[in-house]
Specification:
2 copies of one chain form a homodimer. Helix content of chain A is about 35%, strand content about 25%. Chain A is α/β, with parallel strands linked by helices. The longest helix of chain A is centred in the last third of the chain and has 18 residues.
Chain lengths: ~290, ~290
């Protein structure tokens, strides 16, 4: 392994970034998160933004993942087509300098569809490397844009993006449903009712209007509307994901507050589900990449 | 007919209002449209807002429809449950004064669903009164919230709202797709491709992400993205509407720039479709109500 002194791993998204110092033994020794996402860094500002990370965490090599590799990031790291495993990612690393590498995203074209991911691939293949998911299984990775990923022999064979998280934010912040979507989402009865409805229906853009109509007509309590709406959105998402046949257990990888909701909806669909902490998978993925850089 | 001197008809929505002076012969003699929707009128401000309409169009009786009858409007006109025809609307008129009547909205509860409309009922039953639609047929009424309406014996028997127009606006103004959705929508090849895809798929919240992925991966031209996205949204909407079995021709009632797009998507589904100007239906509906006031 080239980087014997340890390294800094950065999950650098559109609106924020998380950076971790990983010591020579592979342990996370320090970390921080801030709002300096890719969109807030001016053109030409990445060398300074990277130098700032080193001032905070140490003068170590950097492995960067996420939107920092997009055409709005530091240096574009072109998408690696499916099937994509660790070897394919490592081969396609983009090197802005000798001590900085950017992990590429992954693309899928097939079945009449086109899709992209950027950032999730490290967590997904990290989960494979850590032995946390079935290398022939199905992984759900919720976030702003949820990914349903079919693994084959430990590689990303195919995936589909569902815009659930972003749709929920749009509806909460700007829509006619806005005043009904300000409560905290709980995976309780209202959420499960919404999830069951959307698992058995295929009309999300109609079902969402019910959130309002049910309250207006006295069919549901206003305070349950946020969880019910979240249930509709996530239930619809799970219906889409499970349309790809798999006999495997579903692994949900991501932030615990989201995996909890997706796990509840998958359980409503009568399927076995396991939740996995996405941060651990990210660190496992970064270390696997570092090892393979050689 | 009580109102022999003519009347003023107002289609008073959330964000704007359209007012028409209808003379004693039933002809539209004058009209205006402005941005004084219900949301811009302060509590207690409706008598003055109504007086202003009379100053512009004449001191005539007023028939008001739309959100002016909601709990944020002048006076609440409770929803009339389905089946709702002209008689039911006229019986449930709400009278803020002797020369002003508000038309109620319509509600549907059934098949595990709940739904409401307010304003569209005048156009729909106006289309029936004018003989423009089959009284046992199916009507599609696009707008911010599209309504799919099943008529039975000239009454609104059942309906379903699809939030297509609002979703398009949210995606255009606030989403990751925003920069791809600024072109004018045309019912051309890109629109039809999107419509066909969504007519045969049942995963709108996934399909929408393709708008971006196709451009990123060189599968589609950026300048076609707006029409393709509109095709996905309206195609999905039409799939939902046509899930209610009907052998009838589909009548699309509304503003011509919208009925054109819906008619194109319905045609892609292989169904006969007729476009009808919603403004004419509104005026026909208002005059039918005025006649029945007696």
């Amino acid at each position: 392994m080239r980087w014997t002194e340890g390294l800094i791993a950065v999950d650098w998204g559109t609106t924020n970034r998380r950076a971790y110092r990983i010591d020579a033994n592979g342990n996370c020794a320090d970390e921080f998160e801030d709002g300096k996402g890719v969109m807030s860094v001016a053109a030409g500002g990445f060398p300074e933004a990277v130098a700032e990370i080193r001032r905070r965490l140490g003068d170590l090599p950097l492995l960067l993942a996420g939107m920092v590799g997009s055409n709005r990031g530091w240096k574009e790291a072109p998408y690696v087509p499916c099937p994509a495993g660790m070897d394919e990612l490592v081969k396609a690393l983009v090197w802005p300098g000798e001590r900085e590498a950017i992990v590429p995203g992954v693309s899928f074209i097939g079945n009449g569809r086109a899709d992209v991911m950027r950032g999730e691939e490290v967590q997904l293949l990290g989960a494979v490397a850590a032995g946390s998911v079935d290398p022939m299984g199905m992984v759900c990775h919720p976030g702003t844009h949820n990914k349903w990923v079919t693994l084959r022999h430990g590689k990303i064979a195919e995936f589909r993006t569902v815009m659930t998280g972003e749709l929920f934010s749009l509806l909460k912040d700007h829509s006619i449903l806005s005043d009904l979507l300000q409560e905290h989402v709980e995976a309780g009865d209202a959420f499960k009712e919404g999830a069951r409805y959307a698992l058995n229906d295929d009309a999300l853009s109609a079902d969402l209007f019910m959130v309002r109509a049910r309250v207006l007509l006295g069919q549901a309590k206003k305070e349950d509307a946020t969880s019910y709406a979240s249930g509709l959105l996530i239930g619809s998402d799970v219906r889409i994901g499970l349309a790809t046949p798999t006999s495997a257990q579903i692994h949900v990888v991501g932030r615990p507050e989201l995996t909890r909701l997706y796990a509840a909806a998958v359980a409503e669909a009568g399927r076995d589900v396991v939740e996995i902490d996405g941060e651990k998978c990210f660190l496992a993925g970064i270390q696997e990449i570092a090892k393979r850089i050689g």
